[in-house]
Amino acid sequence: MEYAASTGGQGHGQPVEAELRILDLPTSNGIMVLGTIDPATRASWETSLNLLVNKGGGTVDLSRLSFTDVRGMSALIDAARRVQPPRSLTIRHPPGTVRKVLRLFWPEEAAQLITDDGRPT
Predict the structure, then answer these.
(1) Phi and psi of 106, rounded to 5°?
(2) Strands (E) located in the chain
């Protein structure tokens, strides 16, 4: 499965392309997120999260995420809450800014969701 969304815009006189690509992880049930989660790409993001929840959870690899707005993180938290125990949704390799936003707005969920290389949340 691969979902992609993009939007054109202007930045410093040059066209700017915001893009989100979401790929299946080859070695586990989950997805890898590449690019930007913003209002223009949020529908693809939420569709991918819904599919992951419907599969019973899995891993969301954010190592190639370049930007997300708070609503993008809110959608991730909502998806994690919808996964039925004993299954779960986990986040692998979130950028530092994502860690900070999660700790600020959803501290309990941040501690439970992030399961990567042992770095503290």
Answers:
(1) -135, 65
(2) 2-11, 14-24, 30-37, 58-68, 89-92
Rounded CA gap, 112 and 89, in Å?
9
Question: Whole-prediction pTM value?
Answer: 0.81
Please state, in angstroms and as integers, the Cα–Cα distance from residue 13 to each residue in 10, 46, 88, 92, following that order. 6, 31, 45, 36
- Rounded Cα–Cα distance for residues 85 and 7 (Å): 37
Whole-number Å distance between alpha carbons of 121 and 100: 8
- In degrees rounded to 5, what are phi and psi of residue 11? -150, 115
Contact 5, 41 (CB under 8 A): yes
Assign 116 a pLDDT band (cuts: 50, 70, 90). low
